[in-house]
Amino acid sequence: MNVSTTELKAHLGRYLESVTREPVFIEKNGRSTAVIISAEEYQKFVALDDMYWGALAMQAKQEGVYQGDAMQRILDIAQKKGLNLDVNPYSIPMA
User: Thinking of the domain 2-37, which architecture would CATH place it in?
Assistant: First the structure.
């Protein structure tokens, strides 16, 4: 769904309700400038991002190409978040 900034300001409540069904693209001067998504959708993106970086860190560790403590810190953070780094991030089904 696309809406202008003027329309969004006038009917914010309506669009906040609609983000549970679909993203709302906000247009300014005829160009998409932002997107409003539901909190649930945002959490999915955060989880996917965490898994992606965790998987890259795990791969670097397995290949022996990481140096210093940086990658270990990433792996530690992933572990604290309870991420399963054995999962291929590209195989995660997206709703």
Answer: 3-Layer(aba) Sandwich (3.40)
